[in-house]
């Protein structure tokens, strides 16, 4: 698959070829000349109208985001989401180095006791799993300031304890920043997470931190690098922990690495590797025997199904994604954390757009908003989907979708 650094015309050519269409057939489908298509694919002619991009995406049975190659900028100030000032505060927190205060002539910061920090980190995880990203952001700003100081001057625990809390803080930051479309900041936070994990005593934290680095690489268009990293660490982890004799936590981290590797492979257009990794993750989930949430992975049979559907979406196979969705137990899905449920319905929105079912696309999007509003209102990809659904809906959109569009500022 094409990375965000590559021209849109090359992405048009990629998906046209995947659909088995010649330039002439594709041109006939969109009502253009073969010469026009050829110029678009060679980059001689620019695609700068959103209406044309959505028309091409519809003809290729993908969502417009897959032609854009990157998430659009956020629209701050709508729907109670984070504004740019809050993102900038997180950026500043990531760029500060409180542990160097004595060299920077800064006043020393009082160290927060580690038990108190642990409670704050657990609260931040809970807010993340509920999809309360503005609450997470406010917590992160303080935690990114306090955990480095606690590692340098631990109170009520060891430096390793503080480092383990720090890697969790960086992991939360990386995930939220990636969802907000801040890929570079997400990579910085993930890289810090790896470093902090290696200073702790829990090797599984390093395994989970690896998924954050790989996800940030995916957001930057580095799909093959993300795939290689996930698979290498997963194989290293399982060889060290003993395979089927591993603990439930070890199996969960191993499975999470495989799932993220599968998503990276799908984004790279490698359906075979993606399927193989999903099958391996499914076997790990069967060994685990249930849906669990060790290390906040939500790993288990149901989450494997969610990733299988998501991988089909990234491969542009919306019908296959929806078929997987139909096999997921509603009861099992309801037992997952709100962030996972909303994320899945966002993926199914994309699947419906790919098959041209705008009515059900709108329903999935509204369902995602009901489970975790910030997963829709704060994510650029969701705002772009609202635009696309409204553009492609014949007649008036459903009332609940129209209300959502108004609340996020998608209606002019």
UniProtKB/TrEMBL annotation:
Domain HTH cro/C1-type: 12-67
Gene3D superfamilies in UniProt: lambda repressor-like DNA-binding domains (1.10.260.40)
Name of a matching Pfam family: HTH_31
Listed SMART domains: HTH_XRE
CDD domains registered for this protein in UniProt: HTH_XRE (cd00093)
Record protein name field: Helix-turn-helix domain-containing protein
Species this protein is from: Glycomyces rhizosphaerae
Lineage: Bacteria, Bacillati, Actinomycetota, Actinomycetes, Glycomycetales
């Amino acid at each position: 698959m094409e990375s965000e650094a590559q021209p849109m015309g090359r992405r048009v050519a990629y998906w046209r070829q995947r659909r088995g269409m010649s330039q002439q057939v594709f041109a006939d489908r969109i009502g253009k000349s073969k010469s026009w298509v050829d110029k678009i694919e060679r980059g001689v002619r620019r695609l700068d109208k959103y209406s044309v991009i959505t028309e091409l995406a519809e003809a290729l049975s993908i969502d417009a985001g897959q032609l854009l190659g990157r998430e659009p900028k956020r629209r701050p100030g709508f729907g109670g989401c984070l504004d740019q000032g809050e993102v900038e505060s997180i950026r500043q927190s990531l760029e500060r180095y409180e542990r160097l205060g004595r060299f920077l002539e800064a006043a020393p910061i009082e160290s927060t006791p580690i038990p108190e920090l642990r409670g704050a980190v657990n609260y931040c995880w809970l807010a993340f799993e509920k999809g309360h990203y503005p609450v997470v952001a406010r917590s992160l700003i303080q935690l990114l300031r306090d955990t480095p100081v606690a590692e340098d001057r631990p109170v009520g625990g060891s430096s390793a304890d503080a480092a383990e809390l720090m890697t969790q803080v960086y992991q939360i930051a990386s995930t939220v920043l990636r969802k907000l479309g801040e890929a570079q900041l997400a990579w910085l936070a993930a890289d810090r997470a790896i470093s902090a994990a290696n200073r702790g005593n829990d090797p599984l934290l390093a395994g989970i931190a690896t998924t954050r680095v790989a996800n940030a690489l995916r957001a930057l268009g580095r799909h093959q690098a993300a795939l290689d990293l996930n698979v290498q660490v997963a194989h290293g982890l399982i060889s060290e922990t003993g395979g089927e004799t591993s603990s439930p936590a070890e199996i969960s981290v191993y499975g999470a690495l495989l799932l993220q590797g599968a998503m990276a492979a799908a984004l790279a257009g490698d359906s075979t590797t993606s399927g193989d990794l999903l099958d391996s993750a499914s076997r790990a989930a069967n060994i685990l025997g249930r849906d669990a949430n060790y290390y906040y992975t939500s790993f288990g049979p149901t989450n494997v199904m969610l990733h299988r559907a998501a991988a089909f979406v990234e491969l542009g196979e919306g019908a296959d994604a929806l078929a997987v969705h139909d096999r997921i137990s509603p009861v099992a899905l309801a037992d997952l954390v709100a962030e996972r449920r909303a994320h899945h319905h966002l993926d199914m929105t994309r699947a419906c757009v790919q098959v041209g079912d705008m009515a059900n696309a709108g329903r999935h999007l509204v369902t995602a908003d009901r489970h975790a509003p910030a997963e829709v209102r704060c994510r650029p990809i969701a705002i772009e989907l609202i635009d696309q659904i409204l553009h492609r809906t014949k007649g008036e959109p459903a009332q609940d979708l129209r209300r959502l569009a108004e609340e996020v500022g998608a209606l002019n």
